[in-house]
Amino acid sequence: MKRTKIKALLATTDFGNEVTVMGWVKTFRNNQFIAINDGSSIHNIQAVVDFNSTEESLLKRLTTGASVAVTGTLVESLGKGQRVEIKVKTLEILGDSDAEKFPLQPKKHSLEFLREIAHLRFRTNTFNAVFKVRHALAFAVHQFFNERGFVYLHTPIITASDAEGAGEMFRVSTIDFDNIPRNDDGTVNYKEDFFGKTTNLTVSGQLEGELAAMAFGDIYTFGPTFRAENSNTTRHLAEFWMIEPEMAFYDLNGNMDLAEELLKYVIGYALTTCADELEFLKGRLEEEEKLKPQQERSELDLLSKLNFCLENSFERITYTEAIEILKQSKPNQKKQFKYLIEEWGADLQSEHERYLVEKHFKKPVILTDYPKDIKAFYMRQNDDGKTVRAMDILFPGIGEIVGGSQREERLEKLEQRMSEMHVPAEELSWYLDTRRFGSAPHAGFGLGFERLVLFVTGMTNIRDVIPFPRTPKNAEF
Ligand code: ATP
Ligand code: MN
User: Fold this and answer.
1) Percent of the chain clearing pLDDT 70 (strictly above)
2) Beta carbon of 36 within 6 Å of any ligand 1 atom
3) What is the pLDDT of residue 231?
4) pLDDT band at 165 (very low <50, low <70, confident <90, very high)
5) Of all atoms in ligand 1, which is nearest to the CA of residue 448?
6) Which ligand 1 atom is at minimum distance from the Cα of 462?
């Protein structure tokens, strides 16, 4: 089936040629103008049929959603809104779409409604743009690391270690729930399970990533991760994709530099390769913002916000400095925060993160050196005995987008912290081997891919930047 993609036709100035286009009908107006989209561009091509010489029954089948093949001459358009159009010679309906039943009518649908028909929402302008940007960002991530000699490592999806504690885990099992094998004492006999022990879906590839970094130097993972956390927010999914670089001979500063460079690189890539899509999404966001009260609207439009992020260095402050700022802040003094900041050691909630980023600094912020008690066991301990070499990157409208740290490379310190936090050392013996044999300073971070896509597309619900979202009580499609 030979066809030319609409994106190429819209860019051409080569008029008079015969071309074939295949795509889906967006609208059919005046018994004459078909707007066709084939997904290659957010823009449609207009095909003009001569209704005098076309069968009435065929014209009737030109309904929104129908798939068509159109052959005709590419001509300069006289109408407004497009530069080129096709003068139709032959028209074939490849797949009908019953206008009465097709849920996507040519009008504005709410994002909530579109989520319910996620199998069809790809055909809307909004989701065409969102998933093009998502693709571009994924491609840019690989390009960034490839250019820098990082090895793309595939860490396991099914893991036997549930020690990291990054989140609640999903159990992987083939046990028949109607006929559970039991030990004499009544407990479940997992020796009978598929792997002969309990296994889970991974919450992070970091621990395995560290093993490879201790051989390749620089590695990254980019894969799905799963968290059974019952948090029904606009920023949490039960299944999400994470990018996790891990680098030997890196300290926290190098780690922050790399994360900032990565974010700027991929945002810059989207700006140059998805100009049409981002222009459309900018307009979409402006429409959405009009519904909000003036003081809640963002000061910058989508493109300005992305460019601002590229042109300014991220603010770097310690957790301790952040606590001081928050304590003095208006919403804390006036008791407007849901969780008031009273003392050092408090875990920061998203309201605090957003205050720092959106109100105080008005730019991305990297917070470092968190209290050890609110961070994972593997983070490098500072000499003060209280804090660890952690860093979180906070973005406007998003909150935490990156979480990372310099890792504890000293075996004794690591073992001591594991025992304090009741992390079973025997189960992680393989992990501790990296510290036993040629341990080296190293660092890494995790970038939540959907939070990145949220930021770049200006969408506001994480369910709208992954094709088929999985959230509590929802796993459709
Ligand atoms: P949060 O406090 O927002 O739940 P976290 O501290 O649990 O995040 P990490 O364990 O550090 O996050 O994971 C690294 C990154 O993965 C986060 O910075 C975020 O971008 C992303 N992330 C974490 N949990 C989720 C989730 N449930 N859905 C989507 N992205 C997530
Ligand atoms: Mn979390």
Assistant:
1) 99
2) no
3) 83
4) low
5) 20
6) 29
State if residue 403 touches ligand 1 by the CB under 6 angstroms criterion.
Answer: yes
How much is the mean pLDDT over the chain? 95
Does ligand 1 come within 6 angstroms of the Cβ of 137?
no
Nearest-angstrom CA–CA distance, 144 and 138: 10
Ligand minimally distant from the alpha carbon of residue 376: 1
Last residue of a domain, one of 64, 80, 107: 107
Ligand 1: which of 206, 242, 455 to mutate, most ligand atoms within 8 Å of CB?
Answer: 242
Residue 75 lies in a domain: yes
401 lines ligand 1 (CB under 6 A): yes
Range of the domain at 421: 123-168+203-464
Q: Is 466 in the pocket of ligand 1 (CB under 6 A)?
A: no
Residue 149 has pLDDT above 90, yes or no: yes
236 C-beta closer than 6 A to ligand 1: yes
Ligand 1 contacts CB of residue 244 (under 6 A)? no
Q: How far is the CA of 448 from the centre of ligand 1 (A)?
A: 6
| pLDDT for residue 364 | 97
Q: State the ligand closest to the CA atom of 461.
A: 1
Q: What is the CATH number of the domain that holds 218?
A: 3.30.930.10
Q: Is the CB of 353 under 6 A from ligand 1?
A: no
> Same domain for 350 and 218?
yes
| Segment 193-231, tens digit of pLDDT | 999 999 999 999 999 999 999 999 999 999 999 999 888
* Residue 162 pLDDT greater than 80, yes or no: no
